[in-house]
Design a protein that fits this description.
With 402 residues, this protein is of the alpha/beta class. The chain has 17 helices and 14 strands. Helix 6 runs parallel beside helix 8, helix 10 packs across helix 12 and helix 11 packs across helix 12. Bound molecules: pyridoxal-5'-phosphate (PLP). Pyridoxal-5'-phosphate binds next to helix 12 and helix 16.
Length: 402
């Protein structure tokens, strides 16, 4: 690693003006304990080795780099390559991070994991690794989300986790997060709080990035080996931003264009989208200063996207910083554009991607057309679409009827 990539975040957990630790006094000692343990663990070769062992033996890494031959030829512009995080155990990149944090929890002597989940994907990854490591696991989930995502609730329970309904506010992710934090404050002695994306107070955004950069580290080496050069562009979808930063981070110092793709939902000119960076304003959410969706009075507004994993009102502070410096470009892709891309990847390449991932694919197909056959695009295929078939069935059936 070179100088610039190690500068951020600074000692106060800031990425430029973004990030930080906006937490109540009661959480400070737990956060400081975590910060200290994390620094020690990251400097301990044995810890990093154990982390990589679990990635290999349990998660199934390294994942493949796949040339999307049929679509690339059909488009006739840049060649598209897919980093296959859909092949990770449980079907998405989220387990990379859950393994790292659960390993740290064990090292810190914690016996219990607490987490929150929106659509349930992070909850499933957390329950999975808790089962494997023999840790007890409590997952807070909005009561409304539990109804919408009954299958994931059942999966978590099957894995031995306890799913606790959050009944406050809008009964969704925001409320589940508040209740998970409240639980952690009073149980920090034996409990580790496992966050699912590059959000929250320092050191979470840095920790999650460092456990997800395995995506970019592998992809960069695989691409170099295969093509003898780096890709022209790297593209990933952005919810909280963990698969994107994990993919981008090892390319930050390279002469490679980086594009993050947010959810434009039903359109950025409606109020039904989740385009936090491209259409949000600065504010504090879940312990960190970043861009977020808020109304005139500064109240956080409900985001919308057809993909539950992109449906978050904030975004990781490092993305806010990379947007402000212009190093990464952020665009938004609508529900419909994502669904079209999902269908194309399924029929042409035999891979059904997650709807989240399809946002990155839509942008990649558009860029491929604008570039030349000498150019190459690397896309992070963050997850598989099996979890989405219900949504897809409903949508594609309605399409046929209209
Ligand atoms: C959760 C999820 C995302 C969004 O989370 P990030 O932290 O932005 O990566 C994207 N893709 C898939 C498949 C997911 O499960």
């Amino acid at each position: 690693m070179n100088a610039t990539t190690t500068v951020y975040p600074d000692k106060r957990g800031r990425f430029g003006e973004f990030g930080g630790k906006y937490v109540p006094e009661t959480l400070m000692s737990a956060i400081e304990e975590l910060e200290e343990s994390l620094d020690q663990a990251m400097d301990d070769p044995e810890f990093m080795e154990a982390y990589k062992d679990h990635l290999r033996e349990f998660a199934g890494r390294p994942t493949a780099l796949t040339y999307a031959k049929n679509i690339s030829e059909k488009i006739g512009g840049a060649s598209i390559y897919l980093k296959r995080e859909d092949l990770v155990h449980t079907g998405a990149h989220k387990l990379n991070n859950a393994i790292g944090q659960a390993l740290l929890a064990k090292r810190m002597g914690k016996t219990k994991i607490v987490a929150e989940t929106g659509a349930g994907q992070h909850g499933v990854a957390t329950a999975t690794i808790a089962a494997r490591f023999g840790l007890s696991c409590k997952v807070f989930m909005g009561a409304e989300d539990m109804e919408r995502q009954a299958l994931n609730v059942f999966r978590m329970e099957l894995l031995g986790a306890e799913v606790v309904p959050a009944n406050s506010g809008s009964k969704t992710l925001k409320d589940a997060t508040n209740e998970a934090i409240r639980y952690w404050v009073t149980h920090a002695e034996d409990t580790f709080y496992l966050i699912g994306s590059v959000v929250g107070p320092h050191p979470y955004p840095k920790m999650v990035r460092d456990f997800q950069r395995i995506i970019g580290d592998e992809a960069r080496a695989q691409f170099l080996k295969r093509e003898n050069r780096l890709p022209t562009e790297v593209i990933a979808c952005v919810g909280g931003g963990s698969n994107a930063i994990g993919t981008f981070y090892p390319f930050i110092e390279d002469d490679v264009k980086l594009i993050g793709v947010e959810a434009a939902g039903k359109g950025i000119d409606t109020d039904q989208h989740a385009a936090t960076i491209t259409h949000g304003r600065k504010g504090v959410i879940h312990g960190s200063l970043t861009y977020l969706l808020q109304d005139e009075a500064g109240q956080i507004t409900e985001p919308y996207s057809i993909s539950a994993g992109l449906d978050y009102p904030g975004v990781g502070p490092e993305h806010a910083y990379l947007a402000s410096t212009g190093r990464v470009r952020y665009d938004a892709v609508s529900d419909q554009e994502a669904l079209d891309a999902l269908k194309l990847l399924s029929t042409e390449e035999g891979i059904i991607p997650a709807i989240e991932t399809a946002h990155a694919l839509a942008k990649a197909f558009e860029r491929a057309e604008e570039l030349t056959p000498e150019d190459t695009i690397l896309v992070c295929l963050s997850g598989r679409g099996d979890k989405d078939v219900h949504t897809l069935m409903k949508h594609f059936k309605e399409d046929k009827q209209s």
